[in-house]
Amino acid sequence: MRWPDNCSYCESPVPGSLAALMDLYEQNYMRLRCLCPGLRHLTGSHVSRATGAHDLILRIHDQSRHTTTLELTYAMKDGENRPDVVIRLCHDSVQAEVVTSRCRLRRDWIAPNRVAANSALVCRWRYNRFLYKWLNYLHRQGHQFVEAGPRANERNLVDATTG
């Protein structure tokens, strides 16, 4: 799978548009599939290593015919895992959405009279826009999860400098 080209709606986002959010989900799905081409066949935890970057950990939480739920995080030197993002991929609709339980809205960023009407949409937009930017950054760092033959379901260590 080839890394998707930039798209105008992803480069100049307009929060509040459900259609643009759906496009962002599709872009995130394509980028995740490029980061991990064999995603639908993986289980457990996997690590990607790239020179000069933190190790990237991918944990498969749930895998079914139509969806995959995974966690993507860095293994930081202080022992913490950040940013610790849980993502649900819908394979039939070709979309990936950040799954989270809360969002902090900055009142100065959103017009006060529109907060109640679109707060869920704005939260989703912010999380998924973060994922979009982070996936681009991971790609530039050289991270990728690859299958390694019959043992692909076990811990898969990838050195991006050799692969």
Radius of gyration: 16 Å
**How do the helices and strands follow one another from N- to C-terminus?**
HHEEEEEHE
Number of strands: 6
- Percent range for helical residues? 25-40%
Question: Largest sheet at a glance?
Answer: 6 strands, mixed
How would you describe the overall organization of this protein?
By secondary structure, the protein is α+β, with helices and mostly antiparallel strands. The chain has one domain (9-99, 118-145). It is 30% helix and 25% strand. The chain is built from three helices and six strands, in the order H-H-E-E-E-E-E-H-E. It has a six-stranded mixed sheet. Strand 4 (81-90) and strand 5 form a beta hairpin.
In short:
This protein has 163 residues and is of the alpha+beta class. The chain has helices spanning 8-11, 18-35, 115-141; strands at 45-49, 55-63, 67-75, 81-90, 95-99, 157-159.
What topology does this entry show?
Elements (H helix, E strand, L loop, with lengths): L7 H4 L6 H18 L9 E5 L5 E9 L3 E9 L5 E10 L4 E5 L15 H27 L15 E3 L4
Parallel strand pairs: 1-6
Antiparallel strand pairs: 1-2, 2-3, 3-4, 4-5
